[in-house]
Amino acid sequence: RRFEEAGLKFDPVSFTYSFRSGPVILHSVDHVFREQEIFRSIHAVENGYPIHNAMTDAGPSLIELWDLAVADDRQDIEGWRAPFDGVAVTSPEVKLARRIQAEIKRLVTSGTMTGSAGGRRPLRYGDMLILVRRRGNAFDAVIQALKHAGIPVAGADRLKLTEHIAIIDLMNLADALLLPQDDLALAVALKSPLFGLDDDDLFKLAYQRRGSL
């Protein structure tokens, strides 16, 4: 409305393409949120839930639904009649972790192919990424199961993104774009690998300038 009152043309742009997921995953998400009662609870869209599209070079995708892992039945101990060599209860987290490591090893050892069309290659352990909702018993069980199976795993090391040099460069670039008068942020961004300028280049740009860079 403000654009129309100012006599300016406003072209809405729909972001329907995803750079992170394959078509099967995106279509599954769209299917789950297809009902208006569901998508309106998380998305303010008047013309329906937006359909997501995968990029043409997106890799293959697959969704598998596994049965819920449940704990083994616990045998009630009845005094002296209870067996001392009974099998211990296996937690659902450990069961799930063992299944995950078995599936990963099967995919790699069977020569499963991955990659987009024209760049197919055998799957490697380094291609795997296991996402968990939070760090807890399941997370620790997965790490332990992978290590016991001899599968290389990065472990539980944490990386604070805002302290990584690449993220700092991107944040400086964002600061410069949001506030064009911030010459310091712009200079830092220009000297980063994003642009590759050096001190001499900055001097040529900034020397005898009458305003902001």
Number of domains: 3
Order of helices and strands: HEHHEHEEHHHH
Helical fraction: 25-40%
The global form is: extended
Average pLDDT, rounded to a whole number, is: 81
Number of strands: 4
Largest sheet: 2 strands, parallel
GO molecular function, one term: hydrolase activity
Protein name: UvrD-like helicase C-terminal domain-containing protein
Keywords: ATP-binding, Helicase, Hydrolase, Nucleotide-binding
Domain UvrD-like helicase C-terminal: 46-213
Task: Please give a structural write-up.
The chain has 213 residues and is mainly α. The protein folds into 3 domains: 2-54, no CATH class; 90-148, no CATH class; 161-206, no CATH class. The chain contains 8 helices and 4 strands; from the N terminus they run αβααβαββαααα. It has helices spanning 2-5, 23-32, 36-39, 92-109, 137-148, 165-178, 183-191, 199-206; strands at residues 17-18, 53-54, 113-114, 121-122. Strands 1-2 form a two-stranded parallel ribbon. It has a two-stranded antiparallel sheet with strand order 3-4. The longest helix has 18 residues, at 92-109. The protein is extended, with a radius of gyration of 27 Å. Mean pLDDT is 81; it is low at 84-89. This is UvrD-like helicase C-terminal domain-containing protein. It comes from Chiloscyllium punctatum (Brownbanded bambooshark). One of its GO terms (molecular function) is hydrolase activity. Keywords: ATP-binding, Helicase, Hydrolase, Nucleotide-binding.
